[in-house]
Amino acid sequence: MIRLRWLAVLGQTAAVIVVGVLLRFPLPLGWCLAAIALSAWLNILLSLRWRSGIRLPERYATLLLAYDILQLSALLFLTGGMANPFSFLLIVPVTVSAATLPVERTLLLGALALGVSALLTYWRLPLPWPFDQSIALPQLYIVGMWVAVACGMAFSALYAWRTASETRAMSKALAETETILAREQQLSALDGMAAAAAHELGTPLATIHLVASEMKRGLADPAQLDEDIDLLFTQSARCREILSRLSDPDTRTDAVFARQTLSAMIEEIISPLREGPVVISVDRPEALGGEEPVVRRNPAIRYGLGNLLSNARDFARSRVEITLDWTTENVSVVIADDGPGFSADVIDRLGEPFVTTRRLPGPGARKAGGDSGMGLGFFIAKTLLERSGARVSLANRPQPEHGAIVRVDWPRKTIETARAAS
């Protein structure tokens, strides 16, 4: 704000000097320079009082922008009011407010700017003009200037507010996505932690096993503690077996790090969603790609597909159908429901943050509370799936059927062999 005001001070000074000194137009030069000097001294005071990087509270920012409107209005009053071609600069403080401050404060500043500009259409000093010439603009023309400034102010403020709002919404949505990705990274970090634990604990367990063996052989009456020592053997061997599985993430015997077939992953995702009146079925037709793909467990894919399936269940009237298909090149998951489908004004914008519908019409909505959320769920799900290499496409069932279809496609080599990027 200080930099913008210094720019205004330089521009106002140059305009006044050119008109009053170089062109020798009659104008109250002293009063004009005094109004400009007031802004310069205010900037110096603000620079001394606060650091340049401080974020002003909304109340102070509003007061400073209100001062800018009043200071510019004073200069316009001294130089012709709304007949002055520089009167359009009244738009600037309101536009700055629309981009940075809440709507109610922007409305207050807009009302102030419109009010003072309305006064300047009737109450003003004459427009500076050469002594040997005269100019008298019709009052209707001056009122037209005020209307033009008002329209420009409304358009500029609305555009700045909409742009800033969408930017803030996108930043917030991306922050939510980064939070989920951070959690997934923490889960992935457990892989390395488990391997490190297996490596570090292997030696102490071997020592315990060896000492227990020596104790059993050294006892005068082994039968006295035979059961306890055998239990110690058994438990230490079990711990070593668990740690050996943790140290090998590719082992199929461990549920956390094992690979799994595509259909097994889908069954795990839909297992908690089967409760309720909506029937969820999985169709696995004969595929052309030979064996079913075996994929690594990927939290990003599980979250993304889980969110899409949950939405389909909430909007479905009675049934959700999941179709799995694969070839030697691609893997596909198609989710179809028998709900109302995607509305025409939403389908093209789905995947953007904060795009949602007002009500969930299906029986699953009762379980979800009847209202949709903030519109971040699909955005995050789509973002995570795309980061895993997928392509997400949306469509409605062809008439006379009704319902939504979401198709997720991966290159087979991406989902089958590569770890998740997240």
Offer a few descriptive terms.
alpha+beta; two-stranded antiparallel ribbon; 13 helices; 7 strands
Secondary structure topology:
Elements: H1 2-22, H2 29-49, H3 58-78, H4 91-100, H5 103-120, H6 139-218, H7 222-246, E1 259-261, H8 262-270, E2 279-283, E3 294-296, H9 299-315, E4 319-326, E5 330-337, H10 344-347, H11 364-368, H12 377-387, E6 391-396, E7 404-411, H13 412-417
Parallel strand pairs: 2-4
Antiparallel strand pairs: 1-3, 4-5, 5-7, 6-7
Plain-language structure description:
The strands form 2 sheets. Strands 2-4-5-7-6 form a 5-stranded mixed sheet. It has a two-stranded antiparallel ribbon with strand order 1-3. The radius of gyration is 36 Å and the shape is elongated. Residues 249-257, 364-372 and 418-422 have low confidence and may be disordered. Helix 6 (139-218) runs antiparallel to helix 7 (222-246). By secondary structure, the chain is an alpha+beta fold. It folds into 3 domains: 2-176, no CATH class; 190-246; 259-417, Heat Shock Protein 90 (2-Layer Sandwich). Strand 4 and strand 5 form a beta hairpin. The protein contains 13 helices and 7 strands. Helix content is 59%, strand content 10%.
